[in-house]
Amino acid sequence: MPYSNKKLLTRFLKWRYRNISNRTFIQIMSLIVGFLAGLVAVTVKNSTYFIESLLKKGIVFSENQLYFILPTIGLTLVYLYVKFIHKEPLQHAVSSIIFSLSKKRGLLKLKDIYTPLITAPLTVGFGGSVGLLGPAVKSGSAVSSNISRLFHIDAKTRTLLVACASSGAIASIFQSPIAAIIFAVEVFTLDLTMMSMLPLLLASISGVLTSYFFLGNEVLFSFSLSEGFQLKDTPFYILLGVGTGFASIYFTKMYFAILSLFKKLKSPKYKLLVGGIAIGVMLYAIPPLYGEGFGFINNLLDGDHLKALGTTPFDNYTDNIWVVITLLFGITIFKAIAMTTTIGAGGAGGVFIPTMVMGSTLGNVVAKVINNLGLGFSVSESNFTLIGMSGLIAGVIHAPLTAIFLIAEITGGYQLFVPLMITASISYLITKNALDYTIYTKELAKIGALLSHNKDQMVLGLMEMDDVIEKNFRAVNPKMSLGEMLHQSVSKSKRNLFPVLSDDKKLIGIIVLDDIRPMMFDTELYNTVFVESLMHAPPEVIFYETDNMKQVMKKFQDSGAWNLPVIRNGKYEGFISKSKMLTAYRRKLINYSQ
Q1: What number does CATH give the domain 231-446?
Q2: What are the beta bridge partners of residue 510?
Q3: pLDDT tens per residue, range 529-545
Q4: In angstroms, rounded to a whole number, what is the distance separating the alpha carbons of residues 346 and 270?
Q5: CATH class assigned to 457-593
Q6: Which intervals hold domain CBS (predicted)?
Q7: Which of 127, 164, 208, 388 is most buried when burial is the number of CB atoms within 10 A of its CB?
Q8: What is the pLDDT of residues 207-217, one digit of tens each?
Q9: Using an 8 Å Cβ cutoff, are 136 and 168 in contact?
Q10: Would you call 288 helix, strand, or coil by DSSP?
Q11: Strand partners, 489
């Protein structure tokens, strides 16, 4: 930053501290962050729609039915951008935000602002089967994080403003301010207090107004509720809840299974080639997998399943409703595959909107099956399409309240609150019991970076191991005599614990002062007793790369030790003491609670 600008910022900060209270400043910042996040969301949407319209109207691919090669072109452009400009692998949007909040004090890089604005439209605009919500949230959160850093905002407030950015982005895309607030609470495990509620509300409103300003009264789903909740349909909503629950488990497991296959392909070029071919084959057979899928959902809501399916190799058979049901069920199965393949091949996008597409299809399929079994039952296919979305969101994201309020808000279907609650809660319960973690949180849980509404786990997750490692222990060599150890280490140390290290700094044992106390004053033993005969194994060892703070606390509890050695890259790093760890925990808990 130029000196003149830095001086101006300093003057502004001094003026702010004197004239604006911290609470008022946070509220002002939440409005600004909400507006900027909404602007980011609008930019992502419009950039994507511009690319789509350019490809459909200005290029002959669609006329010649060659659209299925477009995703490969988009993935290639993303690959070139990542290799020559971004220069590091793309990360899952929401997971990277949670990791930032947990381990990086809410700090996101400056390039996280513009990279999603480039890679997501290229991926989705060229037909990649992913969503835009995740990239919009990532970019908006990066804007909030960097503004917070600029104004010297503390880490806890920065976390709140990052959540405000996500609310603003979601409210802008879906025009659903309440669901946007709930998403921030459920996914980012934010404590919903009056201190956090008002900034989230202001950011959400700001995001919605931004969307209205730039996009007008354009609605995401053109749907008007014609049939409300009927008690006789309750068993079918329960059935849909069970179906979406198992579909959520399938979606999540398929996601990790396909990503693990792509990880075996070390070269990004091979990933691009394999992924591009796979997506092309799926799109040729199932055209609705192309792009985000909002048009597909709208066609289902309008009751036009033939338009939703588009031109397929099976057009001659779509007069048979069971063929239509089979094709729609195929979309349910392959949407998760197409989405994960796009991400595995190097594309940028989110999982939230593909979840909605899969849920809407499954809900429509269930309704069609009920209506065509010939048993005299009749349910609203459009209602089941909506409620299916809610069930998949609740199951896949583990966010049932977000699912309920989102579908209710974006459709104006508050009359469906009861069936939404039935289906979403059943789906959530089934998935939660089957899967401990979601697509967003599984990898984070492995490294101890998972945020939680459990305050103890949250505080442990926020703690850093580097902050509690102590290195003022005097090491000894196993070949040292007792006399050498006493004169070179014990007499010069303020600690009662001595790590025994090999010549290459590997830990081979420890000696506690109590081990040598009986022989310290027996000079006859100084030259006849050696360290290697006195040392013993530590009660437990902490591994820097793999152990998180929750595991460290458990090792202290199980071993009963007061000090445990830390191994980093196979070598001795230092010790963690229980007293220092508990002190750091108390300080972090106080800061978190405040």
Answers
A1: 1.10.3080.10
A2: 499, 536
A3: 898 898 999 999 999 88
A4: 10
A5: alpha beta
A6: 469-529, 535-593
A7: 164
A8: 999 998 887 76
A9: no
A10: helix
A11: none
